[in-house]
Amino acid sequence: MKIASWNINGVKARIETVLTWLNEEKPDIACFQEIKSVDETFPREPFEALGYHLETHGQKGFNGVAILSRLPFEEVNRRLPGDESDEQARYIEGVFATKSGPLRIGCLYLPNGNPVDSEKYPYKLRWMERLEAHARKQLEREEAFLLVGDYNVIPEARDAKKPESWVNDALFLPQTREAWHRLLNLGFTEAIRATNDADETYTFWDYQAGAWPKNNGIRIDHLLLSAQASDRMLATGIDRHVRGWDKPSDHVPVWVQLRD
DNA sequence: ATGTCTAGTGAGACTAGA
């Protein structure tokens, strides 16, 4: 089965692009970030018409996450635990029954964190601590567990065309990458890098300054797999061509195929 | 070439967030 993640940058502005991609790539499960819609006005019908079950966790104006699945949801959890005062819609988790046992997928939109001298950077780091605590707890289940989404983390210099321009950015600061490595070191496999060692492997190109035609990209969308999930990994991919379509998101889909 | 896009507000020559 194919599990994809994509920051779509607004579901209403992207509906035709997203439907075209779903018809082309036919993921079994698709995790979307930045839906920029409240749950009540999310355009459910075109996705349900393609046979998807759909669970959303949105808010007004920005952020927001959603999971589409051909399999029915056995369980849905909204919000990342650890801070009841956090109002930002950045995490939704679904559980599905598969032939090989339960499959648990967390869909996350990790805070950007810029500017770093504002309250936004400490919020990002606290959010990463909460994600690590949640991941540690869920890994104890010893299930196939995936944490996928827009991490807003550039793991290494080779994950940016121009790493020098990111050295003081919240996506690449040492504290950000340390938190990323603490998460990975709980025992996750980073699916893209485990299967693709190529340079210039990116998932985001800014709308500004001709970033796409210059291939001035960064790799910030990631698929983290528990041991039980990575044992079933067959293939991964980045749907880079989608960035060249009309009305593109600034991110492209990333996906992993698991043995059923 | 710091060259864009989306949603919200309320009607902008706007703002926030990314």
Structural class: alpha+beta
Biggest sheet layout = 6 strands, mixed
Q: Treating each run of at least 4 consecutive H or I residues as one helix, how many helices?
A: 6
The overall pLDDT, averaged over residues, is: 97
Radius of gyration: 17 Å
Q: What would you call the shape?
A: globular
Number of domains: 1
Helix content, binned percent? 10-25%
Strand content: 25-35%
CATH homologous superfamily heading: Endonuclease/exonuclease/phosphatase
CATH fold-type name: Deoxyribonuclease I, Chain A
CATH architectural label: 4-Layer Sandwich
What's the N-to-C terminus distance? Answer: 6 Å
Widest sheet, order of strands: 3-4-2-1-14-13
Which segments are poorly predicted (pLDDT under 50) over 5 or more consecutive residues?
none
Overall number of strands: 14
CATH classification, class level: Alpha Beta
- Would you list the SSEs in sequence order as H and E? EHEHEEEEEHEHEHEEEHEE
